[in-house]
Each structure stands twice: as structure tokens, then as C-alpha cells.
Amino acid sequence: MKIGVLGLQGGVYEHVYMLRKAFEEEGIHGEAVVVKKSSQLEGLDGIIIPGGESTTIGIVAKRIGLLDPLRDAVKEGLPAFGTCAGAIMLAERVTDRVVGEKKQPLIGIMNVEVVRNYFGRQRESFEIDLEIEGVDGLFRGVFIRAPAFTKAWGSARIISRINYNGETVGVVAVQGPHLATAFHPELTGDTRLHRMWLRSLKV
Amino acid sequence: MKLPGYSPLSGNVRLYEVGFHEIVDFFYKLAEAADRLREEGQWMAYGPERLPETITIPRAGTLRVKLGFPVYQKGGVVMDVTNVEQAEIAEDAGAVAVMVLDKLPYDVRKAGGVARMADVKVIEEVMNSITIPVMAKVRIGHYYEAVILETIGVDMIDESEVLTPVDEKHHINKWLFKVPFVNGARNLGEALRRIAEGAAMIRTKGEAGTGNVAEAVRHMKLIMGEIWALRSIPAEERLKKARELGVPVELVDLTARLGRLPVVNFAAGGIATPADAALMMWLGADGIFVGSGIFKSQDPPERAAAIVLAASLWDDPESVAEAQRMISEQKSMMGIDIRKLKPEELLQVRGAEA
Lengths: 203, 354
Description:
Distance between the termini of chain B: 43 Å
Radius of gyration of chain B: 20 Å
Oligomer: heterodimer
Largest interface: A-B, 56 and 58 residues
Order of helices and strands of chain B: HHEHEHEHHEHEEHEHHHEHEHHH
Largest sheet of chain B: 8 strands, parallel, barrel
Strand content of chain B: 5-15%
Number of helices of chain A: 5
Mean pLDDT of chain A: 96
Radius of gyration of chain A: 16 Å
CATH topology of chain A: Rossmann fold
Structural class of chain B: alpha/beta
Order of helices and strands of chain A: EHEEHHEHEEEEEEEEH
Number of helices of chain B: 15
Number of strands of chain A: 12
Low-confidence stretches of chain A: none
Helix content of chain B: 40-55%
Shape of chain B: globular
Mean pLDDT of chain B: 92
Strand order of the largest sheet of chain A: 2-1-3-4-12-11-10
Number of strands of chain B: 9
Largest sheet of chain A: 7 strands, mixed
Shape of chain A: globular
């Protein structure tokens, strides 16, 4: 199994570390590769879009001609797992809590609406233990200037929610082979979500 | 052509042998003693606050989110700006964050006098008009400028030698804040002391406002070299080294084991072109701060986008060449020869005694 991690900006190597750990724990003969150009998309069984600044990742991917091939590959069935900025990249509709609508280059494949910086600024960044459908026990969610899923339609489904200031919002979404989290599972050393996604890719 | 790795470590410097969670656990363990003192009412303990086993209501400003924030800046460029217009140019060019200042470092140098933190109103205007993180600088040792920045919601605080220090002997105890801090360093001792004080991120000091990357190169090579040396000395020598640097031996051991600083490490000070940015990434920087280099040039939007491209794709010669093609040397900021600066004009020595 060969999994790519989009390597333009952000927490790239944290995912490489988690993938290696997950491969070992699952007994999968796997390889994690950092993807920086479209030729590296070939032969992948899945791709992780890491956390970072979604505007930076989108702008650089577009400038170097990687955004369109990446979108095409995902549309044609390349399974994607996005965390934080990665989840924003995968969403069809994106707004910002303070600034509102802002044009930014996206992959835009999942039937979800994402609000960027939903929980506020870095000062409000937080940790909380979450219940996630399909994961036994609690999962520590590390939310850093995190987005939230405010709507899901079509084949997208929210599988974890939290209550924040009286509002209930989604923090994990699935759609077919795609998985998106508003938080950073790669900062906890807990590979259960990575393994859940990897298992779903096995034919 | 493709250059080989700069040092035996630089190929591996971004690949942790140790997971992020283990680094977080390390700081909690290191803080256990400090934590006991805190329980006894000791004032201003140096260390993170411990967390309950299970967190049922959101717990803000934890060590993990403070150390985690700079992880998501890696591979990116933080740009110095002085107003909303510049901040928007930076965001559109693909900056990962902006740093709001009253004056660009080059102008600080020209103006002389006391350089302080930026206007609160300007910082707030910038926060309300862009979606990327907003950082701002405080004077070294100025707890209250930092309190103000945390109160208004700035995403990261730079305790910076570019501003006029209020305390040459002590830096801020950064463990007391919920917002993460970045500090400058010229060598491993400065870097580890700042980390022990709670800095979540380190940057080279370089020599700000000169458009001359030479000092940043010197500082980055020195830090990398010192880490390399740590790996090849026996434990008793590391203990001696820790005493010499004035930091816990555990922190020295962790750094040796990782083969890199335990927190995110950016390059700063004099970066003016895409080639400068790529050079610093090759030397092992996790990302780039650009101060005067963009808005003191004659082509800010193009140059900003070009430096972003070079920082992201520094290991691809074609992309760096393409980035360099986007700018013109005719439009680069005028550099200052550091050898022509008088000793009292150097910014990098500020706070170095602490």
C-alpha cells in the first residue's frame, strides 16, 4: 500500500510518522511518500491532505499546476483524508467566521459546509475528548484554529459532533472513501483514525 | 542540479524519529517538579499546567495546542506588515501568517529611538480583514505588551530583539500565557534557554532590516553544528554542556536524540529573495520569516508569492528558479553591509546575555 501526504506546507512529517506507526500496528506492508508534484500522484492508494494554512496550500498547489490533477485524481476515486486545513481543502463550501466568504483554491469534493476558524483564534485553541462513530472509547481531539462542519448533504455524513457555546457542530465527516477531521489526530500518537481509514482502503 | 543534504542531519531533520506526542509528554514530565511547587503556591513556576485524564469541556491554551500551532506554519512564510493593505497582499500571495509591526525593521533601524509594539487598533484591523494567523512583536521582557496582545487575541507573540528591550537580563516567562511565543536565537544556548522559558517556536535572529542573509546563515549553521556535536559526546559531557548553557540536561539529551530543536525552528533576519529562502530551508529551517525584504522592495506582490513558492518547493531546483524568475534584482531592497554597522547598531546582541 502506498499513501501520499501532500507536502506543500504544514504538518506533513507528523502524518508520515503516524502512517508508519499505523502500518506497523496494522501489519500492513506500506509506504508513506511526500507528494509535491503531479507525477507523484501515480500509483497512490490514498492521499492525506495535512493541516497547515488552507490558503497557502491551495495557492501553491494552483500555481505549480498540482491542484487540478489532484482534484481529478480524488474525483476519479483516489481516497483522501484531510485534517484541519486538509478538511477545508476537501469541502465544497467554505466560509470564514469573521471575514465571511473569501475566494480560495480548493479540491471541493465533499458535500459539506466548513466554517474556518469556527472556534475563534489561537487563544481559543483547545483539547477535548471526543466520541467518534466506529472508534471504541474516547479520542483526544486537538483543535488548533480549527474549522467545523456546519452542514452535510448528499453522501457526506457527520460521525462526530461537539457542543461548543451552545451550538452543536460536526468535527469528523465521511463520504465514501474520504475522511475529514476538523482536529489533528496526528498530534496525539493515537493512530486509530489513521488505521480506520487505511482499513477502509483495503480491497 | 540537486544539492546533497547540507549536514548528516539535515536530510533527517524534518523526519522525527520521535513523535510529536512524545515531545509534549517530555515537557509535562519535566514540569512535574515545577507543578508541585505551583501547588505549594510558588509564584511564576516555569512549566506547563498538567491536564486531567479526560477532558470533557474544551480546555484552551494547553501545551499541545501551543506547541502544535507552529507545526502548521512549517514550510510557509510569515511576512512583516504594517497595515491592512500589506496584510491582504501577504494573504493573497500565500503567506501562512503576518507579523504586524509599527515600522518595518529597516525603518526601525533608520528611525532610531525606542521601538515598541504596534498600535492595538492596527493589529485589530488586520485581524478583522484576513483569515490567516496574525502575530505581533513585543519588547524583550515586556510582560504587559504580551498581556495586551493575548487579550486582543493575537495568534502568536514574537518576543523580539527588533524592538527595544525593557529587560536585558530576563525574558518573559512564556509558560504563563495561553498564546504561543516565538523567540530569536543566535546559537543553541539561546534557543534552549528560550524553550525552557516556554517558547513554542524558535527563529534565527539574523540581522533584521539589512536585506543581508549572512547572519541568518551563520546562526542556522551554528545551531545545526552544535546539535550535531551534542550527538557525538558522552552523557557526562552533555551534563557539563547543559550546565554551561544554563538549561536542564534532559532538554539537551532530547535535542541530541532528535537531532534537531524540539520545537519548530524558522529562519529570520535579512531574507530578501526566493533564493535566500531556499538556502535557509536547505540548511534545515522549518520555514521563513521575511521582514523588510518584501515591503521594502519595489515589487511586493510578486516577491511575496515568489518567496512562498521557494519556501514550499525549496528542494526542487526548477521551482526555485521559477520563483527567482518572478522577481527582479533591480527591485530588491538595498542591502546593508553588516560589517559597516557599528557594534551598538547590531540588533542580534539584544537579550543575548539572558
